[in-house]
Known about the structure:
The structure holds three protein chains of three kinds. Chain A is α+β, with helices and mostly antiparallel strands.
Amino acid sequence: MRIQISHDTIYQYANPPAGVIQILRMTPRNHDGQYVSAWRIDISADCRVDAQEDSFGNLTHTFSVEGPVSELNVHVEGEVDTDDMHGLVRGAIERFPPALFLRETPLTAPDPAIRDFATAAKASAKADTLSILHALLTAVHAELTFDVDPTHAATTAQESFAIKRGVCQDLTHIFIACARSIGIPARYVSGYFFRNDGVVEQNAGHAWAEAFIEGLGWVGFDAANKISTTDAHLRVAIGLDYLSAAPIRGTRYGGGDEALTVRVHVDQAMRQVQG
Amino acid sequence: MAVAFDEMTGQDGTIRPAYKELSSWLGEVRPDVLDYRRREAELLFRRIGITFAVYGEADSQERLIPFDVIPRIISASEWKLLSRGLEQRVKAINAYIKDIYGKRESLRAGIVPEDLVFQNPVFRPEMNGQKVPHDIYVHIAGIDIVRVDSETFYVLEDNVRTPSGVSYMLENREIMLRLFPELFSRHRIAPVENYPDELLATLQSVAPHSAAAEPSVVLLTPGVYNSAYYEHSFLADKLGIELVEGRDLFVKGEEVFMRTTQGPKRVDVIYRRLDDDFLDPLAFRPDSALGVPGIMSAYQAGNVTLANAVGTGIADDKAVYSYMPEIVKFFLGEEPILKNVPTYRCREEKHLTYVLDNIEQLVVKEVHGSGGYGMLIGPTADKATIAAFKSKLKSQPANFIAQPTLALSTCPTCVDAGIAPRHVDLRPFVLTGKDKVRIVPGGLTRVALKAGSLVVNSSQGGGTKDTWVLDS
Amino acid sequence: MLSRTADNLYWLARYVERAEYLARILEATQRLTALPLAYVGESNEWESAVATAGCANAFYAVFPEANEENVTDFLAFSTDNPSSIRSCFEAARTNARAVRTALTMEMWDAINGTWLELKRYGNGPTSREELSRFLRWVQESSLLFDGSAYRTMLRNDAYSFTRLGVFMERADNTARILDVKYHMLLPAHEHVGGPLDYFQWTAILRSVSALTSYHWVYRESLKPWLIADFLILKEEMPRSLASCYENIVTHLDKIASAYGRQGPSQRLARGIRTRLQNSRMDEIFQTGLHEFIQSFIADNNRIGATVSQQYLT
């Protein structure tokens, strides 16, 4: 599949700040089943953009804008060819051994309720790790209701699990918390998802988890859609949780009252034809 | 618990040579004179404003650390051994941190268990593969040393994140020089006053390549509400560098600048006294208002040196501590000169059983705790506390280590009842620069002022003494 | 130097100056209210003290009406009032602590000593005598700090920022008195004025410590328009708006020449000073004293913001 992305993140400041600095993790890399044929980032303000690679191997772009800034648009667009690898992630950059991804973070720390839930899912499955993870995927998807209202970027797995509601980020955090609590390395993936129901305008990117299975390697699990990752998934950044894989982290100096608009357009690109 | 070794009277009751002059002086000096000087010292400290804050005590935002006017004395030969041991230890620590964030050979060789590193909150994935100038991660280390007899010094704790206390080493000496000139004339004492120069030289030596010939060095403080703020301003003053807060700095184009009345000025080396967690809201805690947004990107680009480096906690974590002897051997191929206190790792079942069975004789410490918090001293704890600790131990054994209750050495100390022995420890400071390791002869001696107490932490009623290293 | 250091020095000086001013207001008000009613009229002087201190909003948020007890407490000791004498000394010391390395030992001793002494007053004096002593002490402490700064600081940019703080605060304070009491100073008052106004006038001069110097300058009995002239245009008078701006311009110029660059602060300050130099009292009365003061206060605030933007952030 050739996925076409256009992603705008627009900040409007009622009270223009004196400056803004942001770090972006918005550039996908190539690996088996994913080839980036075109990609670019446009910042609406004049600034230098510095590219780096973070410790997980994600491409980052850092920029700072000197104010006063009344509006800022981070625009990303590109095309990526994907193949369905049945969830398997191969040929990707790996900077850490899987053991790192057993690490708890504040966003993914399990509480007894999550531990019990994970243990129960494990008990319901066959003994092999893949079956356990699929059981977990089904269980998390069934346990939580997709709801954009009650949670936000800083909601923890525990908070979301307690109210049984959340968005893809929350479901992913819970899946990760569960997997780690039963000794399976798991990590957060931020990216895009092509919907096959014809909806191309989305108001956020997508998130899912990858879990490590001895012998298979890293496998993608999308709890919000209850599927293993497919060619509809465009993988952009990985991390221990949302924070370390977040598309944008930023700070503004002074100012106040910002309004944020996010427009994500995920479509299937037209096949190129001769002539 | 064995009878403590007294550094003045020694095991056989005769005055040890290093303390000969002091002992006879103590015999001569009138108690009221000593008392008068004691009060004078307190007045001086208050006047200068040397205070510290105790967390969790609302009414005592600024307090004085009690100062004891009787110095603690270390002989030249003892110091020689200590400083060799300290240098070795810090070298090993630097090599180990480089390895953890680089090739991870020590993990592969099984020197340190992998989970203890990767699952440790003080391990910073952000540092993985990060180059630091001259491979120095720990530029400033404060190594806590205790003594149990005339021969044996143990390392109690390595402090390689943002160790504090050096201002007391310097101020205690100044005050002693003012109050007891006659006592100094009877000894040959190695000076400590060059510490700020040594520190500045160390910091300048690790400036990034992109720095100007005269690198710009600053001290980054969390601000006036930090318990060690006095020390931060004291050191900045002595070093002649700017004392900055996070909001004084900003990042642009992967470089760090400070806001001055004449516009932005580039910063090359940051002696930071701010914890990793708060350093950069774009990399670590997003709610930190104390840090500098984007500073990690400047750091990763190699345009600024942070001293100490980010992620050094992986070397001074109490759980990692017990592996230090193996770490020294693995990286340096030498026997450790300074011993570790024998340590039981509760994460290991055999050790846990032993600790639970013998808890009354042990000191149990939380792996990530500091400042004497989250600690159980078996011999003095009551039954309920012990029971509470036992259940904590059983539910989360990996969070604890245990050590035998050491009979820390004692030194003569001025207390209300006169002069009496009190337990002490020692924190010397080790500076590692591009060119060499510098250790100023001396350190911070902390003293437990309560009779029999082994807790020397200032937050729990400990005091300080001037530490004299004899020149010959 | 660090912008924040300059900011701390500037505010340190401002708060010390403000504390002294508050002490003077309280002293003058106390004196005025001690007079028999026949001499001062029915006006509530405590109300006017709150207004002159510039914290009427904060005050009436807590108290329904102004009287000796609550105004004294609010202006001198209240921790709820960020501009009480106590809060000023606390804030001054916090600023001082943040820039200890930029202070001389004498300055630190002065402000730290004041702060330690402040603690001895607890929640405030219990008697009028004690209050008087306290108000004297506040003025002495401020003098001590000012004197230490004057005597011991290097004459560099740090010094200039400290002085800027003093003079901006002083200009603001003098302007506030004028703003509250302007109606007492209108020429028309000459005819309607009686003993009632006489004591008001002396109180005004007292609150800027200028009662004696008035006589030295004018060699005349108190005349409201001369008092206005004295407080606004006389450069000899250290708390006049003109004198403050003479100093503000001098120090901004020093900073500009040290940095080899001037900016909006210098331009604005020179503009205000020129206006003061070119004004005559009769013209000011003609166009309106109140309007003049109001526009000065606005200008003074504007320059505060400009200095802050150009140097302190």
